[in-house]
Specification:
- This protein has five helices and six strands, in the order βαβαβαβαββα.
- The chain has 162 residues and is α/β, with parallel strands linked by helices.
- It has one domain: Lumazine/riboflavin synthase (Rossmann fold, 3-Layer(aba) Sandwich).
- A four-stranded parallel sheet has the order 2-1-3-4, sandwiched between helices. The protein has a two-stranded antiparallel ribbon with strand order 5-6.
- α1 packs across α5 and α2 packs parallel to α3.
- The longest helix is centred in the middle third of the chain and has 20 residues.
- It binds ligand DLZ.
């Protein structure tokens, strides 16, 4: 995957997503950023063959709610993989640390509990400009990267279970 630009990758290394089903959960906080992440993720899934009807996109209020939102998608939809998109910007309170730690641990636990990919698409930045740079700006779009990661993880599952 890309290191310098989150949207740069070898197209030929991405399998077809035509038979895959995706859930996407997006935090409404910092929506200028998270909306762009979501658009990037959807566009990338479609680019690699995913069918529109196989993509379920839902919103939650803030990043702290992403874990439960992702669990709802796993429980109540037929999603094979869940893409989790949020943006936490460092402020003057310790909210930043609490939210980041909570979501990171929560997503890790979901991967194990459901034995399916829950993709970490949470931007954790010092300021809004750094976030915009990674949401379709000069450093690409982390939503694109998250979508490619979801496809690759499902392809790995398919390879090992065929
Ligand atoms: C409260 C809060 C703060 C201070 N900052 C952010 C942020 O930068 N990004 C984000 O997604 N959410 C933030 N929130 C909201 C929390 O994630 C959560 O929605 C509330 O604490 C309610 O549980």
């Amino acid at each position: 995957m890309a290191t310098k630009n989150l949207s740069e990758y070898d197209l030929s290394s991405v399998p077809s997503a035509s038979e895959m089903k995706f859930g996407i959960v997006v935090a409404e906080w910092n929506y200028e950023v998270t909306g762009a992440l979501a658009q990037g993720a959807v566009d990338t899934l479609l680019k690699h063959g995913a069918k529109e009807e196989n993509i379920v996109l839902k919103h939650v209020p803030g990043s702290f709610e992403l874990t439960l939102g992702a669990q709802y998608l796993a429980e109540f939809t037929k999603s094979d993989a869940i893409i989790i998109l949020g943006c936490v910007i460092q402020g003057e309170t310790r909210h930043f640390d609490f939210i980041c730690e909570g979501v990171t641990q929560g997503i890790t636990n979901l991967n194990i509990k459901y034995n399916k990919p829950f993709i970490f698409g949470l931007l954790t930045t010092d300021n809004q400009q750094q976030a915009l740079d990674r949401a379709g700006g000069k450093l690409g779009n982390k939503g694109d990267e998250a979508a490619v990661t979801a496809i690759k993880m499902l392809a790995l599952r398919d390879d090992l279970t065929k």
